[in-house]
Design brief:
It contains 14 helices and 15 strands. The chain is α/β, with parallel strands linked by helices. It folds into four domains: 91 residues, Rossmann fold (3-Layer(aba) Sandwich); 69 residues; 165 residues, Rossmann fold; 59 residues, Alpha-Beta Plaits, CATH 3.30.70.
Length: 434
């Protein structure tokens, strides 16, 4: 019987090309392992059409992995694939070290990143669901009934006891998360009653979502150049043109082959995406595989039912891609993408204007005359930060230059008796008048 070591981060990585057009995914997998804190001591690659039922990689490749694991003194072997419980058991018996598949690796990273109460509950639930399917682990002693003085009687194997305890913990975690989800829904209902639009930031992990979130809201969300740098969802107010505001949500990053345990456990968090009025899909423009990453995100959005939510594509990291800030529109004038550098602030003004245009309409500038009897209207225009210039008042009212959405300006003109007028004459003695 093999006793699994509990410590050590020297990792041998294994990734195969399964003939699905994705290749081995070596670069991303290495980055995942480094994000988990592993010390990479080697990398084994290969090609295979179908997984081997016993070792996933086949007998010959398994022997190659065993030899390299022994040569590099690896503490664990990390697979860039989903392994069945029996495959993990067989590999650990052959390699004499810990074996972890892609799902287990991502779950470990999420466990390290979770900071909030809800985030920890979600990760704990995902881990319990993952463990529940892998309790066999190949340890035959778990199948024996308890024995010894004081332990006879229940007639329950250790494996059955473990399964029962895990099932109980899953039920407790599910109930606690349901309470948190109800609280989150109350917050969403309050925002809907106040008619506050919601914007959710989504994208592939490490595309710069948190950096963009900080740039738009002046928040201090942790951001770093590594996969899953932030995990917990964060909500902040996003100020728009004309004094309007929205709620901006920073969500967990997506990745290819995102474990279904995580999609299920993080459903309440992902509902911030599902309930959003607009999604900002952040794309790393410097990534040569950004089109493939974009498709992966869209697949996850479809899986959680958010594929019908309007999307604004934000191409980030243009400083690394050698591009200039730009708002891309189609022939009809619809925005198809905004090019920005969230780190350096390039294009952020244009992005904010595009978001404002989506929610409050394109702003128009007009000179209006506000009657003296409409002092509250004048105060409201200042409160909306819509006044660009004011030229004092006479018996006919205040002359003001304002910037408002066209619909809002027309409504105020009808209800508050605003009069649109021509701009004032140039001031005598101004430039060129001497």
């Amino acid at each position: 019987m093999f006793e699994r070591p509990r410590v050590g981060n020297r990792a041998l990585l294994v990734a195969l090309d399964m003939g699905d057009g994705r290749g081995t995914g070596e670069a991303e997998f290495r980055e995942l392992c480094l994000s988990a804190g592993a010390e990479v001591v080697g990398f084994v690659t290969g090609a295979r059409r179908t997984p081997d039922r016993r070792y996933f990689v086949g007998t010959g490749k398994a022997e190659e992995i065993r030899e390299q694991a022994a040569a590099t003194e690896a503490d664990l072997v990390l697979f860039n694939h989903a392994l069945s419980p029996s495959q993990e058991r067989n590999l650990e018996g052959l390699l004499k070290c810990r074996v972890l598949d892609r799902t287990g690796l991502i779950l470990d990273i999420f466990a390290q990143r979770a900071r909030s109460f809800e985030g920890k509950l979600q990760v704990d639930l995902a881990q319990m669901r993952h463990v529940a399917s892998r309790l066999v682990r190949g340890w035959s002693h778990l199948e024996r009934q308890k024995g010894g003085i004081g332990l006879r009687g229940p007639g329950e194997t250790q494996l059955e006891t473990d399964r029962r305890l895990v099932a109980q913990r899953i039920r407790r975690l599910t109930r606690r998360l349901e309470r948190v989800a109800r609280q989150r829904e109350q917050g969403r209902r309050a925002r809907r009653r106040a008619d506050v639009p919601a914007v959710s930031v989504v994208g592939y992990t490490n595309a710069g979502k948190s950096t963009l979130f900080n740039a738009l809201t002046r928040a201090q969300v942790y951001a770093a150049d590594k996969l899953f740098a932030t995990l917990d969802p964060t909500l902040r107010q996003l100020s728009l043109e004309g004094g309007h505001a929205a709620v901006l949500a920073d969500t967990v990053g997506f990745i290819s082959d995102l474990p279904h345990e995580l999609v299920a456990a993080f459903r309440s968090t992902l509902e911030e995406t599902l309930e959003a009025d607009l999604l900002l899909h952040v794309i790393d423009s410097s990534d040569p595989d950004h089109a493939e990453r974009e498709a992966e995100v869209e697949a996850v959005l479809a899986e959680i039912g958010a594929d019908e939510v309007p999307v604004l594509r934000v191409y980030n990291k243009i400083d690394q891609a050698g591009l200039a800030p730009e708002v891309r529109r189609d022939a009809s004038g619809q925005v198809r993408g905004v090019l920005v550098s969230a780190l350096h602030g390039s294009g952020m003004t244009q992005l904010r204007e595009v978001i404002s245009e989506y929610f409050v309409g394109a702003l128009v500038q007009r000179w209006v005359r506000v009657p003296l009897a409409e002092g509250r209207t004048r105060a409201r225009l200042f409160a909306l930060d819509a006044v660009l210039e004011e030229r004092g008042a006479d018996e006919s009212g205040w002359l003001m230059q304002v910037a408002l959405p066209r619909d809002a300006l027309e409504t105020m003109a009808q209800q508050q008796h605003l009069e649109t007028v021509a701009g004032p004459a140039p001031v005598a003695g101004g430039a060129g008048g001497q």
